[in-house]
Structures are given as structure tokens and as C-alpha cells.
Automatic annotation (TrEMBL):
Reaction catalysis annotation: Couples ATP hydrolysis with the unwinding of duplex DNA by translocating in the 3'-5' direction
Stretches assigned to the Helicase C-terminal domain: 232-383
EC main group: isomerase
E.C. number(s) listed in UniProt: 5.6.2.4
GO cellular component, one term: cytoplasm
Lineage: Bacteria, Bacillati, Actinomycetota, Actinomycetes, Micrococcales
Any one GO MF annotation of this record: ATP binding
Signal peptide start and end residues: none
Residues of the full protein shown: 90 to 633 of 726
Protein name from the UniProt record: DNA helicase RecQ
Length: 544
């Protein structure tokens, strides 16, 4: 290797070298994984690339190694400041000259990074996409030598995606400003729609596309109906994964803290993690999780990005995720070492009602709401499906065929549906009963009620609220006694999930949708998983 000339690239030790050697020498890995080799060589040679690779697949190497073997600085656009810090710190430990520019830096720090960049003393420079809206940043970039642009979390450019960020729309302009600099866009979201939008909006029409196999065969997917979330979770964590490391996701900070406490009370070594905790508490939770064995982190979705622990044995969700993309990303943190792991989710009627309401009362515009509803419906379809969960997921991510065999994904043998096929139950009669109760209540009262009241009416539950609201005077009082309250909750949940009814307004009052007509008239049967009812009837907390 020739000594680097002074000035541009002074000190860059790897320009023109074989990527495999750099991988070994700088990062300590023997070989590239999956598509990495092809991607690295393509980008190192100056080609554009679109990379769809699941969480944990090793996306960073795909731009870090080419940044080192090409002249100049690799400019990485990444939306999460915390993640940037971690990456930069890790790179520096490996001897790579990396830095970031972000709003939390002092003027002096910023000047120093800018100077180093302009003088060619940086291998990698991390930037938040919004910085590109300032002409100052564009001028700065123009004064240095750019090896490549890496656009991380590229799905953020998709308006239909689950994590749209308007700043990403500007990134298409990089192609015009720097037509000769290779660009690589990376994401773990692989729906065909998102893929198309990334290609279009980032002007990557000429790019080579690398779509990895999204299957994570060592993860067992399990989705069950929620009866007593705490008891079910404790059984899952303590009963089935005692002493193992795992992550439990909940939607709110309060739920995180309550759940962590409940697990601790049950003898599990659980710590809470959410953005509202002081940073030293969060850091402590994270450090314990990484360094010690068998720590369970109960967290909001703020936890996990950039955390790289190979032996996470389970990921549990006690609240319904808002999209399949989110669910897959979160569950993907299990089993990076390839050993058997579980993704477990409990969801119930309340989840469906709550999320529908959150969307309705959210501050987004109509487009946003439609979009969120679509994502929620897809998540619910996954929950209610009676086919293999994995086949469903892979199809969702556009993986129509099994790599190697070319066959469509079928039964995987490693999900709850495959291991314990649910029986279909003809729920047409209770479905019709619920629909007519809603309609009759409307006629008799000039309004309708939320799920809980309707279930009281159907079962004839003389609760305080039922008496107070004189529900027992309705003509439908007690007509559904044949089924238990828990069974009715299952029916209502299923109907909400598949869009036969809606929960509207602040109170979540039930209303039939257009789709309910053929059900009422008897033209369309309602089939749901019998397992929901069977387990509801026995209290539901049992393991299989
Ligand atoms: P992603 O961004 O796709 O979720 P990362 O880039 O964070 O994945 O990589 C996941 C883990 O895999 C990291 O610990 C990374 O160091 C490791 N890794 C990446 N490439 C290789 C490789 N070729 N050999 C071994 N480990 C690798
Ligand atoms: Zn399966």
C-alpha cells in the first residue's frame, strides 16, 4: 500500500483495497453475509443501489466498507440522532475516522468536524436529512470530496409507509447536484409499494436492487387473544423463558412501568425503559440488558434501535403494534444469533377500539388517517388470519416465492397456526345478533353504545351501568346469553378487525359498516377462529 498523499484523503488507509480485507481488518469479520458482498462491490465500483434487508441483516457494512475503499468521505443520512452517536462511537473504536453533524453540537465542535471533512480527514460523515435543507450544508458538502451517499431508513420517503418524514423528499435532489456520486438507499421495510416509492422519489431508477430474503426461520410467531394480559405475559416470560433475555413492548410509558413492576413482583429480572426516564436510568437499563444474562427490558418502541444483542430469546408485545412494518422490525430483534426464539403478541378487543379511536382523534389530516387505518387493518388481518403467520408476513413483504425452491411460501411449521391449527367456527348467528342489537338500540334510543354496553345487553349483565342506562329495557336484552362475555368480546373484536363494524367517536360507539349488509341478510357467513372462543371460555391464560 502506497502512503497516502497529503491533502485529500490523507490518512485514509483503505482506498482501492479489497473490501473483504477491509472487512476483516477494520471490523473483524471473516466473511460478508448474504448480499453484502455483491452490494459492497457494486457500490465500491460507483454503482447506485437499493437495499432491502431485514433488521439485523447487516445493512451498515453495505455503505461503511465502500466508504473506506473509495476516495473521499461517505456521507450517511440517518434520521435518528441517538443512533448516529452510537454508530460514530463504534466506528471510532474500530479506528475509522467518523463524525456527525447535528443540532446538539457546540459551534466549536461543528467547526472542527467541518474542517476535518473539507480537508479530507473523514471516512464517514453522518447527517440528519433535515440538514440538507440548509444551503450552508450543501455548500459545505461541495467543498469536500464525497465517496458516496448512504440513505438509511429509506422507507421514510414513502408517504404510504409507516414512518414518513418530509425531509426525505429533498434527498432526490442529491442525484441532480452530484450525478457522479454513487447513492445507496437502505431499509428493512420491503413492501412492494415502499420499494417503488423509494426508487421513484430518490431518483434511483438506474440503481441495482438487492432484496434479501426476509424470512427469519428461527423466530416462532405466536399471536393470542388477550384475556388477562399480565397473567398471560408472566406465564410466557417466567413459565416459558425463565432466565432468558427478552424485550417486552408496550404502547405507553405508564404501561411500561406497571408491566415492569408486575414482572419484578413475579420474580423476573425486569427493567423499564422509555423516553420519559432520566438518561442515566435508561443507560443503566440498556447496559444491564447488554452485559448481564437474562435481563428483560419492558419498553416503548423507543428501545431497540441500534441495540445489537445477539441472544435476545423473545420479543413480546402486550399492546397491538400499529403496523406490520413496526411489528416485524421489533420482533426482528429476537434471535439474531440464529438460535430458536419467540415473537409473542397478545391482543384484544380493547386494543382494536383504542387504536381506531387514536387514529380518529389524532391530529393528522385525512390522508394520514386513511393511511394509519390501512396499516392497522393489515396488522389486524395478521392477528386474525387462519393461515401460516410466516407465509402471511412474507407475502406482505412482497416475497411471493421461497428462495431456492421458487414455490409460494406455505406452512412454515414454526408458528402458532402451523403448530396448533385453529379450527374455524361459524359465528354468523352471533354476528347477526350483534348487528341487529346495534341497529335496534339505535332505533329504540336514537343512539348506539360502545362495545362493553352492547355485550352487557347481549348477555343480560345487570351491571351498575346497565341499570343506570336502563339497558335492561331494550328488546335485545339477554338474547345472546348462550355465549359468555369473553366469547362476545372475541366476536366483537373479530368484527372490528375485519371491518364489519366500526367504533366511532370519543366513546367508541359501535356502528355497522357497508360490509355488514350481506352478513345481516344471511348472504355472507362469518367465520372466525374457534380457538379464540375456546380459550376465552377457559379464561385464556393457559399455554399450549
Ligand atoms: P441492520 O442495520 O441491518 O439491522 P447492522 O448493520 O446493525 O444490521 O448489523 C447487525 C449485526 O450484524 C451487527 O452486530 C453487525 O456488526 C453484524 N454484522 C454485520 N455484517 C456482518 C458480517 N459480515 N459478519 C458478521 N457479523 C456481521
Ligand atoms: Zn407457520
Amino acid at each position: 500500500v502506497q502512503p497516502a498523499p497529503a491533502g485529500l484523503n490523507a490518512g485514509a488507509k483503505h482506498v482501492g483495497r479489497d473490501p473483504r480485507e477491509v472487512l476483516a481488518e477494520v471490523f473483524g469479520y471473516d466473511a460478508f453475509r448474504g448480499d453484502q458482498d455483491a452490494i459492497v462491490r457494486h457500490v465500491a465500483a460507483g454503482g447506485d443501489a437499493v437495499v432491502l434487508m431485514p433488521t439485523g441483516g447487516g445493512k451498515s457494512m453495505c455503505y461503511q466498507v465502500p466508504s473506506l475503499v473509495r476516495e473521499g468521505t461517505g456521507v450517511v443520512l440517518s434520521p435518528l440522532v441517538a443512533l448516529m452517536h452510537d454508530q460514530v462511537a463504534a466506528l471510532r473504536l474500530a479506528g475509522v475516522r467518523a463524525a456527525s453533524l447535528n443540532s446538539s453540537m457546540s459551534m466549536d465542535e461543528r467547526r472542527e468536524v467541518e474542517r476535518a471533512y473539507v480537508q479530507g480527514e473523514l471516512d464517514l460523515l453522518y447527517l440528519a436529512p433535515e440538514r440538507l435543507s440548509s444551503p450552508g450544508t450543501i455548500d459545505l458538502l461541495a467543498r469536500g470530496h464525497i465517496a458516496l451517499f448512504a440513505i438509511d431508513e429509506a422507507h421514510c420517503v414513502s408517504q404510504w409507509g409507516h414512518d414518513f418524514r418530509p425531509d426525505y423528499l429533498r434527498l432526490g435532489a442529491l442525484a441532480e447536484r452530484w450525478p457522479d456520486v454513487p447513492r445507496i438507499a437502505l431499509t428493512a421495510t420491503a413492501t412492494p409499494e415502499t420499494h417503488r416509492e423509494i426508487t421513484e422519489r430518490l431518483h434511483l431508477g438506474e440503481a441495482k436492487h438487492f432484496v434479501s430474503n426476509f424470512d427469519r426461520p428461527n423466530i416462532r410467531y405466536r399471536i393470542e387473544s388477550k384475556q388477562n394480559a399480565r397473567a398471560q405475559l408472566t406465564q410466557f416470560v417466567r413459565g416459558e423463558h425463565a432466565g432468558e433475555a427478552g424485550i417486552v413492548y408496550a404502547l405507553s410509558r405508564k404501561r411500561v412501568e406497571q408491566t415492569a413492576k408486575a414482572l419484578r413482583d413475579a420474580g423476573v429480572d425486569a427493567v423499564a425503559y422509555h423516553a420519559g426516564l432520566p438518561s442515566h436510568v435508561r443507560l443503566d437499563a440498556q447496559t444491564r440488558f447488554l452485559r448481564e444474562d437474562g435481563v428483560v427490558v419492558v419498553a416503548t418502541i423507543a428501545f431497540g434501535m441500534g441495540i445489537d444483542k445477539p441472544d435476545v430469546r423473545f420479543v413480546a408485545h402486550i399492546d397491538l403494534p400499529k403496523s406490520i412494518e413496526g411489528y416485524y422490525q421489533e420482533t426482528g430483534r429476537a434471535g439474531r444469533d440464529g438460535a430458536p426464539s419467540e415473537a409473542w403478541l397478545a391482543y384484544g378487543l380493547q386494543d382494536v377500539v383504542q387504536q381506531r379511536q387514536m387514529i380518529e382523534s389524532g391530529d393528522g389530516d385525512q390522508v394520514t388517517r386513511t393511511n394509519q387505518t390501512r396499516h392497522l387493518n393489515q396488522m389486524l388481518a395478521l392477528c386474525e388470519t387462519v393461515e401460516c403467520r410466516r407465509a402471511f408476513l412474507l407475502r406482505y413483504f412482497g416475497q411471493e416465492t421461497e428462495p431456492g425452491t421458487g414455490a409460494a411460501p406455505t406452512a412454515c411449521g414454526n408458528c402458532d397456526v402451523c403448530l396448533n391449527p385453529p379450527k374455524l367456527w361459524d359465528a354468523t348467528v352471533p354476528a347477526q345478533m350483534l348487528l341487529s342489537t346495534i341497529l335496534r338500540t339505535h332505533r329504540e334510543r336514537g343512539r348506539t353504545y360502545a362495545a362493553g354496553q352492547h355485550i352487557d345487553v347481549l348477555c343480560g349483565v345487570a351491571s351498575e351501568r346497565a341499570t343506570q342506562m336502563k339497558l335492561d329495557e331494550l328488546t335485545t336484552w339477554g338474547i345472546g346469553k348462550e355465549w359468555s362475555v369473553a366469547q362476545w368480546r372475541g366476536v366483537v373484536r373479530h368484527m372490528l378487525a375485519v371491518g364489519l363494524i366500526e367504533a366511532r367517536g370519543e366513546w367508541g360507539v359501535l356502528e355497522p359498516t357497508q360490509d355488514a349488509k350481506p352478513v345481516l341478510s344471511g348472504e355472507m357467513p362469518v367465520r372466525m377462529r374457534e380457538e379464540v372462543l375456546a380459550r376465552a371460555a377457559t379464561g385464556g391464560a393457559g399455554r399450549r
